[in-house]
Amino acid sequence: MTIDSLVNIFQGVATLAESFSHNPTVAFVRIGLIFLGFLLIYLGKKGILEPLLMVPMGLGMATVNAAIMFFDPLNLHGGMGTLFVEAQAGATADAVKNAAEVMMMLQINWLQPIYTFTFSNGLIACLIFMGIGSLLDVGYVMAKPFQSMTIALFAELGTIVVFPVAQLFGYSPQQAAAIAVVGGADGPMVLFTSLRLAPELFVPIAIIAYLYLGFAYGAYPYLIRAMVPKKLLAIKPPPARKKREITSGEKMLFAVVACVFLSFLLPVAAPLIFSLFFGVVIRESGVKEFVDLLQGPVLYLSTMFLGLMLGVLCDVNTIMDPKVLPLLLLGILALLISGIGGIFGGYFMYVVTRGKFNPAVGIAGVSCTPTTSKVAQKVVSKANRTAIILPDALGANVSGVITTAIIAGIFCSLLAR
Amino acid sequence: MTGWNEALLTYGLTIIISFSVAGIISLVVKLLETFSKNKS
After folding, report:
1. Looking at beta carbons, which residues of chain B come within 8 Å of A406?
2. ipTM of the shown complex
3. Which residues sit opposite A69 in a β-bridge?
4. Whole-number average pLDDT of chain A
5. What are residue A81's phi and psi, to 5 degrees?
6. How far apart are CA A415 and CA A395, in angstroms?
7. Is B17 close to A406, i.e. CB distance below 8 A?
8. What pLDDT, on a 0 to 100 scale, did the predictor assign at position A163?
9. Mean local confidence (pLDDT), A220-232
């Protein structure tokens, strides 16, 4: 047995050794990504980060960086690759060459069918949105529509501010819009916008968006405590005036009208808008079989494959791209400014209602449904156990999804190539 | 600075469309309330 045979058997080790000899930075980043994968699994298991995404993502990230071998059929990564997925397959301008590349990779990489047929066309974003829609109770928005929308609009500040800031970093307006939408904190919307406007940055933007959404879950409580004094955190919302309960038929009517109205205004975002309101309509229709299907298999299967795919796409070649580093900064900036904007929205409502509104609700305008609502309620409950702000927070949360869809639609229409 | 005009235009349009949606919601709720009162 020769050394070459051993190298052929243990290609993961051999590629790492080769990286150490030719480009040690790549080797260190690869090892770092394996350990980052372990860390994400641990933080997901502990509940510090969102386990639904972080566990499959962490395992995918650690494994794909371990399983690098001497394999690069499209000559894209200097002779090294994996048998998982090739996001660049079919990325050339030549349509015939594209089709041939995609067909070849579909027959080699085991996750390629999922990437090609659900990711690169935005289907996964729509499926997740159907699932999210089936969990949304639009009754909270219908109870206080103007209040909810106002907060959500404040919480879009990150998106608006980061769009020009990203252009200062040298990104094109399309790329800047794709990264700015991270400020809307709506994962499917980020996937959709980056696929439409900057497909070349889809992978790093999607990874960054979901990583940060996981971190936002852990970091936003600190932001709320830093910006809202304990006295204001303890504010109890005034008891609701006795109002007629909103029926499921009325919620359905609203969903149908809003879906058609928004699709009429923003046809580019219509697939996402339709998917969201389709979920809402199915929920309110009461067809139990469909509701169970959307809330269970559709939502969780899509989320699981989303996490897994993002982890698998997070290989050393993607992370070492020089365009990725500024994206890391811009993504966190967008979410931070949106969070601050949301709390400013809470303060605005506090002033308008003459001190009867809890400013912490503002964070729920950042539309990471229902995470930010839960975060707001958790922080408020620590200051005053009897303060129930969840209905107001969920209203702002659902409105946040709508405002992000509007912004994504405007960006896609305004900046279409 | 590059991009601020598009950013402000996007924000302005978002505000208008969002409040239009909020207006539609209020209108739907009001109409349905009136309808259900008349019915009863």
Report:
1. 13-14, 17-18
2. 0.92
3. A81
4. 88
5. -170, -170
6. 30
7. yes
8. 95
9. 92
